Amino acid sequence: MALRELLEALATEGLQNGWLRRETFDPQQLVVTDSGVVYGESVRARHIIFCEGSAATQNPYFNWLPLRPNQGEVLDVECPGLSEAQVLNRGAYVVPLGQQRFRVGATYRRPPFAESITDEARQELSHKLSTMTDQPFVVTGQRMGMRPTVPDRKPLVGTHPARPVVSICNGFGSKGVMIAPRLAAHFADVLEGTAELWSEVNIERYSALYLASLSEAGVSS
Ligand SMILES: Cc1cc2nc3c(=O)[nH]c(=O)nc-3n(C[C@H](O)[C@H](O)[C@H](O)COP(=O)(O)OP(=O)(O)OC[C@H]3O[C@@H](n4cnc5c(N)ncnc54)[C@H](O)[C@@H]3O)c2cc1C
């Protein structure tokens, strides 16, 4: 099953079983106390974990963390002559999707970001593919997304220094699909008190930035 279908299937299950709601989270509606959180009229919880990817740069609790969004694009191509027996990787990756279709990726762009998919990315990835195969291909799709990257290339996981019921699970950069499930399970254990958070991913390593944000705001720690 492709990743998009897997996420869609999980979302459908969540909506049906009531553990997922599809709506835009509004931080103005969140009330945080020492013992838990209340959101809007209907949600009460012991804890909130923000998992909002690049949007966390605007998060009022965690905007001091060094999250650096990076934009990326991929192409879908049809290339009947190309073998589907392996993934190619040389400056770009080419992943077989079946039925002579392939995913070719990816580009990296720092701000300023493009509003939508670009000709530049299409040309760059088409060129890279043409250096890996002499078979003709047709571009059938193009998509873009954001990577939530961190300068030290490690995730940002942990609990707010002053708000013990508010946490974050983010900063997966270009490896979220690979590492987020494992780290989410680990963090659940941490919050249940059965594991200690891996120090490499702990947001505590950036506590100096938190203190600097307080003094910038004129708050004493
Ligand atoms: C082109 C490209 C190729 C990639 N290839 C790979 C790869 O091959 N392997 C790999 O492991 N990773 C890859 N990645 C990286 C991977 O996609 C990210 O690491 C991963 O998506 C990060 O997951 P996340 O859940 O933290 O953030 P996101 O996937 O960005 O999810 C955050 C979600 O929160 C939602 N959200 C934000 N704010 C709100 C709000 N206020 N209310 C409601 N919802 C909100 C967003 O809409 C979004 O759905 C790639 C990324 C790109 C861009």
From TrEMBL:
This is FAD-binding oxidoreductase. The keyword Oxidoreductase applies. Residues 36-189 form the FAD dependent oxidoreductase domain. PANTHER family: GLYCINE OXIDASE, SARCOSINE DEHYDROGENASE-RELATED. The keyword Oxidoreductase applies. Keywords: Oxidoreductase. InterPro entries: FAD-dep_OxRdtase (IPR006076), FAD/NAD-bd_sf (IPR036188).
